[in-house]
Please model this.
Amino acid sequence: MVPFNKRRKTMFPGQDENREKFFIRLTFLKEGNLSDVEQAYIVAKAELRHNPRKGELDSEGNPIRSFEHSRRTTLVLVDEIGCFEALMIRCALLHDVPEDSRYVTVAKIRRWCRSVELARIVGMVTKDPKEGYEDRLRQCGEAGDWRPGLIKLCDRIDNMRHLDYLGREFQRKQGDETRDVYLPIFTELLKIMPDEYRRGTRKVFEELCELVAKYETKSWELKTHSIG
Model:
């Protein structure tokens, strides 16, 4: 058991989420679309529920499963961006499955979910193959394809929000990578976002910039210098 003063407290939306709360916000979806989201939810939970999140503990000191990250990423999309498209919700739920699952590939997602577009978007945000991953995201933006970039933004903000209990080296790595690789991609994303999602996307982007400033190497060096 982790000592009380070391336990992670609930800090962000989604930490205390469950299946019932998640689906209440989606009751307005058409029956077929809701069934598709339920399928994605079940697949993601089955594949990610036993994988612990690095350094993340709940209020009782227990490891948080990777599925919570997928669900939180989806909540950013729905609650903060305001995107209630069934396709995008499914993509957010499944975005880590091909990368972290031993058995479920993008090809299987395409067959099971009967959606070429779903599989395409999930494949774009999956680091498999890792080679060319960042270029693929950039090319989507250049082609006016905002969907993969938005899923990645939701994924990245959730990762950055949960760095406090990880080592300083990892924090700096995430901060520097986000600054150098992802902020330029998300800057371009803002230019091509549909009007109905632009405000929410910008708000999340601005928070991400603040987190980069908190964790990047330059910030750490300035703090160390000022203390010295």
Summary: The mean pLDDT is 88. The first strand starts at residue 52 and ends at 57. The beta strands are 52-57, 63-65.
